Amino acid sequence: MWSTDAALWEALRTHQKDALTVGAAFYMGAVTAPDLKVVQSGSVDVRGDSDVQSTSTVTVIGTGGSLVPKAKDAPLATYGQELSLRRSVVVGSTRLDIPLGRFRITDVTGSNERLRSGVVMDWSVQLRLQDRFEQIRADDFLAADGPRAGGTVYSELRRLSPIPVQTNTALADASVPLSTVYDTRIGAIRTLCSILGATPALTRDGVLMPRKTDRWLTDTTPDFTIDGVVDWQDSMSNDFYNQVQVRSTVNNDLVAYSSITDMSNPLAVGRAGGRTYKTAAPIYDTQAAVNAAAVTYRDRLANRRSRTVDVVCTTEALLLDVGDFGLVKDTLTGRQVLGEVTSIRYPLNPAEPIPLTLTVSEER
Question: What is the mean pLDDT of the chain?
Answer without folding.
Answer: 90
